[in-house]
Every structure is written in C-alpha cells, then in structure tokens.
Amino acid sequence: EAGVTQSPTHLIKTRGQQATLRCSPISGHTSVYWYQQALGLGLQFLLWYDEGEERNRGNFPPRFSGRQFPNYSSELNVNALELEDSALYLCASSLARIDGYTFGSGTRLTVV
Amino acid sequence: QKEVEQNSGPLSVPEGAIASLNCTYSDRVSQSFFWYRQYSGKSPELIMSIYSNGDKEDGRFTAQLNKASQYVSLLIRDSQPSDSATYLCAVLLYNTDKLIFGTGTRLQVFP
Fold this sequence. Notes:
The complex is a heterodimer of chains A (112) and B (111).
Chain A: E1 5-7, E2 10-13, E3 19-24, E4 31-37, E5 43-50, E6 53-57, E7 64-68, E8 74-78, E9 87-94, E10 102-103, E11 107-111
Parallel strand pairs in A: 2-11
Antiparallel strand pairs in A: 1-3, 3-8, 4-5, 4-9, 5-6, 7-8, 9-10, 9-11
Chain B: E1 4-5, E2 11-14, E3 19-25, E4 32-38, E5 45-50, E6 54-58, E7 61-66, E8 71-76, E9 85-93, E10 98-101, E11 105-110
Parallel strand pairs in B: 2-11
Antiparallel strand pairs in B: 1-3, 3-8, 4-5, 4-9, 6-7, 7-8, 9-10, 9-11
C-alpha cells in the first residue's frame, strides 16, 4: 500500500512569489491535514480537508490556502511568500482522526 | 499555557536503560493521545496511541495515560542507539477537533 506522497521534495522561491505544494493521501483516506514545521519549532496545524471541504484551519493568515480534489488529493498554496514561511510542510492523512495520522515525507520550502 | 507541553531535552540514557518521556495537556476532555517518533530530517512516524487511563504496551514501548492529571508518558525499555530521535506527543483536542503536537523531546541513547 502506497503511503502519503508529497511533491515536490524541495522548493526554492523568492520572497513575494507563490508556492504550490501537493499531497496524495493513502488510498481510502478521505481526510488530509497540512502542518508547518519551522526549524526548531513544533508542528503547527495549518489546514484540514475532508470530502472536498475545508473543515478547520489553524492560526495562519489567509495567504495560506488550499483545496482538496475529488480524488482526495490536496494542494496547499502559499501566496506572497515571506522569509518566515521557510519550513518543512507536512501532509498527513487518516481514515478516522482517533486512529492518528500518517505523514508524508514533506516538502522543504525555502524562501530567499 | 500551551495546549501540549513537553520537555525539550535532550534526554540522554545509556543503551539498555529505560527512557521515560513525559507530556502534559490542557484540554481536560481530550480523548485520543499519540506518540510520534521523528528522526532528524524525516517526517513523524506514529508509534503508539492510547485512549483509556492506564498502560498500553507494544513491544519495548509502553504508553501511560492519566486523564485526571492530564498526563501522558512513553516508556522505552532496553533503549537502543537507533531509538535516538525526537519524540512528539500529540493530543486530539475535543474542543477544537485538531491534533495538536508538543514541541518534542530529543532522546539520545549512547552506547
């Protein structure tokens, strides 16, 4: 069974640009979660999508947005990139929240 | 008060010893608790989940939950150098319906 896949592995962008990160959940999982892990900090909850709808979002500005497609894959968009957005972005999926999440290998975003 | 708190460490233990990792949480009605292991440069990996008060054992790992004290712990018996990693405590907060992570405890197991 394929795990959670994320692309690209690394992404380098210039301040002010937009970044698009992609995630494919484990087959059969309908929920996708996005987290940000900045250097030295813990995982910060960004967004939760389920059945194509945004169910919850963390304490991040509106320039962090995303969507979930009919096949349950998801995309995270970060507009007007700032240097502080440099971080590891992790996507996770689950069948039921009480079972915990399975994480992908992440996208390392560097803003210069 | 942070929603999930962990000592950042590092916690250093000799090979073969028991490593004890602790976590406290603020949401009294949380129901689901998880321990993740994260190697440097890698993504978190789920190693244990616990939902009821008491102990839950899985191989060398034992998770302990005390809801009255809002406390979760992870014991690693017969620690190995390969256990050296950051251990993240995560709590599914009932009031926000989000899985919230602590900042992690770095464990170092030396030969």
